[in-house]
Design a protein that fits this description.
The complex is a heterodimer of chains A (113) and B (114). Chain A is mainly beta and 113 residues long. Chain A is built from no helices and eleven strands. The termini of chain A are far apart. Chain B is mainly β and 114 residues long. Chain B has strands at residues 4-7, 10-14, 19-25, 30-38, 45-51, 56-59, 62-67, 72-77, 86-94, 102-104, 108-113. Classes of the chains: A mainly beta (113), B mainly beta (114).
Amino acid sequence: SAVISQKPSRDICQRGTSLTIQCQVDSQVTMMFWYRQQPGQSLTLIATANQGSEATYESGFVIDKFPISRPNLTFSTLTVSNMSPEDSSIYLCSVDNGVYEQYFGPGTRLTVT
Amino acid sequence: KNQVEQSPQSLIILEGKNCTLQCNYTVSPFSNLRWYKQDTGRGPVSLTIMTFSENTKSNGRYTATLDADTKQSSLHITASQLSDSASYICVVSAFQTGANNLFFGTGTRLTVIP
């Protein structure tokens, strides 16, 4: 199994500012995933982060808005840039074990005012 | 279109009672189906994972069933406890290249009351 921690656990931010979310895994993993969970909605994949290469973004998400770093095999950051109230969500970091199991971090609850 | 639908959206039951949550999917080609439990303020935690050939899988008081022909799954919770109060998310994985091969339901919000 993998233990994932995220910082911050929650934050309230003003419109137009940026927030960087950190994700730390207790073991080395090839791929790390970033999800968004809007209120009452299912999880939506934002991007996949591989160490040593640029992140791969899903349709509807762009690097300028959600820049991602992956400096090593246990750590990643997601930045939510130029925030608006529509960005208020829970942001989740995730890894898988290469087979079927997927592990999620506790999430970062973001509120934009 | 690959979709996962769950019902009911929310459910309130008395402690000690049983309940069943439903999941219907149209994901193809099917790889596996997972049920997750998400406590408030926490990330989802895996309860069961079933592949095409598995019909039933249990994890303590949680029993999941899968009918791959009708593309339906259920999660049965026996003798509910207050700690079962959470959202239960059905996730279906497709056999396809790329990372975005997981399709998430919107979840069933279960509240267990004393």
